[in-house]
Amino acid sequence: MRPFAFLSLIGLLAADEAPFFASGIKVGEVDQNSAIIWARLTEKDSAKFDQLPIFTEGLEKKDKDKIDMPLGVVPGMKGEARVGHRATGVKTAIQYSPWKPIKAETDFSHQFRLTDLLPGHHYELIVEGRKNKDSKIASKITGGFHTAPEGKSETPVRFIVSTCQAVRSIDAGADGHLTFKQMLGFKPHFFVHTGDILYYDKAPLAKNVAQARAKWNLMFAYRHNQNFHRQVSSYFMKDDHDTLKNDCWPGQTYGDLTFAQGLSIFREQVPMGEKTYRTIRWGKDLQIWLTENRDFRSANRDKDGPNKTILGAEQKAWLKKTMSESNATYKFLITPGPIVGPDKKGKSDNHANKAFFHEGQELRDFLAPMKNTYVICGDRHWQYCSKDPGTGLIELGCGPINDQHQYGGNPGKAPMHRYFSAKGGFLGITVENGKAKAEWFTTNDGAVKVGHIEKL
Fold first, then answer.
1. Domain ranges, ordered by start, for the chain
2. Rounded to two decimals, what is the model's pTM?
3. CATH class of this structure's domain 5-42+77-146
4. What is the pLDDT of residues 252-291, one digit of tens each?
5. What letter does residue 20 receive in the DSSP assignment?
6. Are 74 and 221 in contact (CB under 8 A)?
7. b/e map of 122-137 (b: 16 or more CB within 10 Å)?
8. CA nearest to 259, candidates 274, 236, 241
9. Which top CATH class is 157-453?
10. Contact present, 22 and 14 (Cβ < 8 Å)
């Protein structure tokens, strides 16, 4: 990753007055020519971590499901913001967007879309905030990202995948999750978060819109988390806990929070384009697909059969068409939940379970014959590589954010496992010279590589 000149200033240049960027910035939906920059203005320059000890100390068993998410941990502020960018190493003036009003209706956030970018380049970013058009610039935050190379480019690409993070698994105090610091050592071109970015239904509980927003504000105020996301672009996916509650489906509620509100809040809090399922080409050798596993699903309790679905008819048709048409050397289908497994006992929420066996088998039968095609999944709290005994389809489980987030349930090493570890951390994928490899890292021991498959 090429250095950004502003990074020597630690990315944050703040005046003595608000607004600030205590919730950081997020860079998302990067392709060859565009990106979306998410920013939020705040009253203070950091979160009020002292409101609850669990904000920086994790969660004790006695606190389970007993503490509500307090409001005002990272209060937002009205004002104006703009984004500047330029290609790294190019001696041209920074291109600035117009100043945009920041309003309470969007939780004091705004998403800026950058266009006409050059493929296969690194870009520098600077995001600025002020009270109004008559005020001076109060705060700045800097960062950068890589654009995807063109489809014929043989440029090497490195990316990382992780899942499942929560306030209760904090391992570095006000710095948050140590993993986000250690991920930078992999020098990724991009990051995929497969969902459960936070847990509404785990302490501190978020049972209404205000509490849900407050929890998002907190999660991205942790310093390691914030520092990572200003330097690496992300593709954000959602799962059950960051939509509503465990194993949820459309029409349900959690406290006063509705499923529809959960969908809306997710799109508000992360940079997101038109659809939450999408595919992105990263050069000649790599294409990724990201599925949406909540919006269109049947109820878990429905009887299984050809009409029971997680993906929905439209998304499934799109997936089959685009994957069949792709000529990428390697194809990675990235999903919030497993398709191969094995899963932990008692689950009925994903394609590795009997509850959705029909559609799961349909997907396994479709994917397995495709050359160099692999599933990467989140949600499971252990790291693994499995080979489906029926079709031969390979699935890579990235594992949770850290060891603190294991929380049991792993099935142990099974005959279908090519690799298994009861660890948390992240999965790194490298595609280079027409070859791909997978590496699993555990973060509590200093981002140690604990397993790898040199040739997928």
1. 5-42+77-146, 157-453
2. 0.95
3. mainly beta
4. 999 999 999 999 999 999 999 999 999 999 999 999 999 9
5. B
6. yes
7. bbbbbbbbbbeeeeee
8. 241
9. alpha beta
10. no
